[in-house]
Design a protein that fits this description.
215 residues; single chain
Length: 215
């Protein structure tokens, strides 16, 4: 099997994330108790800002290995991201190395972080790629929806690439659910159906998170 990043490396990333996120912003975490303490798991995170991944990495109760676009692995960030257990993925092709490593994380009972929209956008889960369903069904891992709210706030920014310093960012964890229908099928039709189920769950979670936080 392709080399799989260790939980220890992701734990280092989590500790760095804790220091950075709580130092720069005011994270408010809701529903972390819903995250299963052990076993393979997928965090499905909405994505409206670059800080969303590090924010979840810092506040999640378990170390997380995120699938991150290869374009982020530039200069010193390449060995750094790799060293803290993050997974480089080429979004323009079927990246078999990334797929193998991500499945390896789940096989070892780890947590895989995915931005199911594939790229940064409105952060509303409106357009999902099939990759999330594939990993959930193939890896036998429940999905925990995660809503990050407030990271795309524009007013009051001192640094263009970051939310306003010391601003509140809400991270809301939802109830874990299974994407598959229990049959274990991995056909294109089964994955399409799983993607539909996932989209309904994630959209409902985001709506509930906005109601809870008033954002």
């Amino acid at each position: 099997m392709t080399d799989v990043p260790s939980v220890r490396s992701a734990e280092v990333g989590r500790r760095i994330g804790v220091g950075l996120m709580y130092g720069l912003f005011k994270p408010r975490v809701l529903g972390a108790w819903r995250v299963p303490a052990t076993g393979p798991l997928i965090f499905a995170v909405n994505h409206s800002h670059n800080v969303d991944g590090p924010m979840v990495m810092g506040v999640a109760p378990r170390p997380t290995h995120f699938l991150i676009k290869k374009e982020a692995f530039v200069g010193p960030l390449d060995p750094f991201l790799t060293g803290i257990g993050q997974l480089k993925v080429d979004r323009d092709t079927t990246d078999r190395t990334a797929i193998s490593r991500a499945l390896g994380v789940l096989q070892q009972g780890g947590v895989l972080g995915i931005f199911p929209e594939g790229t940064r956008g409105e952060g509303d889960f409106a357009s999902l790629r099939a990759g999330l369903a594939y990993f959930a069904v193939r890896g036998g891992a429940p999905i925990v929806p995660v809503a990050v709210l407030g990271s795309s706030e524009r007013s009051g920014r001192l640094i263009k690439a970051l939310p306003p310093l010391r601003s509140r960012v809400d991270v809301v964890f939802g109830d874990p659910f299974d994407a598959g229908d229990g049959s274990g099928r991995r056909t294109r039709k089964a994955l399409d159906e799983a993607t539909e189920r996932i989209q309904k769950q994630l959209t409902a979670h985001l709506k509930n998170a906005r109601r809870l936080t008033g954002r």
